[in-house]
Design goal:
By secondary structure, the chain is α+β, with helices and mostly antiparallel strands. Helix content is about 45%, strand content about 20%. Strands 1-2-3-5-4 form a 5-stranded mixed beta barrel. The longest helix has 27 residues. The protein starts with 11 loop residues before the first helix and ends with a strand. The N terminus is likely disordered.
């Protein structure tokens, strides 16, 4: 009587199970990283698990299938996912958006009085440098907003 030991680790179902476990591991690490690269590799491993389960090709063919599938996912799917889930850059709004804007001096500006037209509204203004004054008709740059007063500087 002859005992035949089958190398079960080369069995298609077991190889598919290894690919499936690899896909789960890659997806778990991706959950911590968030760059969608490992998720594409996990997708390639999952597709390879299915491919391996339904075919009897050698393991190296599974590896080639994994490489090609992952490469396609990285090139085609990852950019769309990154664009869809990217956080838009925050733009300042309200008074936070006013510094750096140009304004027209309506009334002479000195340390104690002055007015400008900024974005269609009239604002009280004072100079950034308390020793300077600005005459009506000049263009100034808003340096900061201090309460309801624009702090201005003669700028470009």
């Amino acid at each position: 009587m002859r005992c035949v030991v089958s190398p079960f680790w080369l069995d298609g179902g077991v190889v598919a199970l290894f690919w499936f476990i690899g896909a789960l591991a890659l997806a778990a690490v991706e959950a911590m990283v968030g760059e969608f690269f490992l998720l594409m590799l996990a997708g390639g491993a999952l597709a390879t698990a299915g491919f391996s389960a339904v075919t009897d090709f050698p393991v190296w063919v599974d590896g080639v299938f994994f490489a090609i599938t992952s490469f396609i996912l990285v090139l085609l799917v990852r950019p769309a996912l990154k664009k869809r889930f990217s956080v838009p850059e925050l733009r300042p709004s309200g008074i936070d958006a006013l510094p750096g804007k140009s304004a027209l001096v309506l009334e002479d500006i000195d340390l104690h009085a002055g007015a400008i037209r900024l974005e269609g509204e009239v604002w009280t203004a004072r100079p950034f440098d308390g020793t300077q004054t600005y005459a009506a008709g000049e263009t100034v740059t808003v340096m900061e907003i201090d309460g309801a007063t624009a702090v201005v500087w003669r700028g470009p």
